[in-house]
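Writing this down once: the sequence line spells out the residues, with the fold written below as integer tokens. I am pasting one below:
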Amino acid sequence: MRVYVATILSTVLILLPSCSISQSEPQAPMSLSQKVSTLNDLSLRRPVIRLDGEKFKNLVRSAPRNYSMFIMFTALKPQRGCSVCKQASDEFQILANSYMYSPGRSSALYFAMVDFDDAQDAFQSMKLNTAPVFIRFPPKGKPKKADTFEVQRHGFDAEVLYRFISEKTGVQFRVMRPPNYFMNIVLLMTVALLAGLIYLKRDSLDFLFQKSTWGVIVISFILVMMSGQMWNQIRGASFAHRDPRTGAMSYIHGSSQGQFVMETYIVMGLHGAISIGIILMNEANTMKDLSDQQRKGMAGIGFAMLVFFFSVILAIFRSKYQGYPYRFLF
């Protein structure tokens, strides 16, 4: 019995050192082929790869790499109070989905997201204390200052993010937004309203032959085209922009290369006010049933509208085109 116990103890003592040695051995770094295979598998599951601290270290920070990664550092948990992170995440998702289903998709570029609550060590290693932040990690070396996208200056629309990453990597694809049925519904309701109006007035369609009716239709069409509604439909512009730091809303895009949906409404309203001012000045002379004083007042109101709203339009134009030298009232 003593011999049997001694044999067991000796065997355990022999195995213990070997176990401790095997546990202390560092994990072998991933090869390039393993990284690419892992990223391809993850991107097939979801276009925006979710990275924790370990994946960020192995797939992004460590060599070797022959691919670029465009990473959004964010804080999506409600308790973090990041009001713009969800909006930025939606735009980033649109960008990644567009790349995922584009013919030019390859293993040269991957889109990923690092949430603060999932990888605080990643934020610490990148010395980040705000969100959202977009950084492009090149195939070789560390990201430089120019690889960080300036959210405060350019916003985070998918189209703007695309231009940034396309310039950095040379990868080109088309940003495809989900279909927006709002304008189609508005158009359908407008046609239905006009059809109903014509049906109710079927016994008296004289208004269709009046100059004022067609004048309103033509001016309305011109205002829609001048305001940039077609650009919004083609580019899928966002409604407005909220500053990530202050939370303040911007309705006028600060660059001549972009615009917001609300901006087109403002411009359309200003052009409409200018048109009304010109019409008032023109019609004041033809209103024979009005007194001279009333006609002068009508013309004066039209002239004041023209001067004021044209000055506002010019001020908006000057704010978008830096260095434009001309102004009127403002």
Remarks:
- Residues 1-9, 11-24 have pLDDT under 50 and may be disordered.
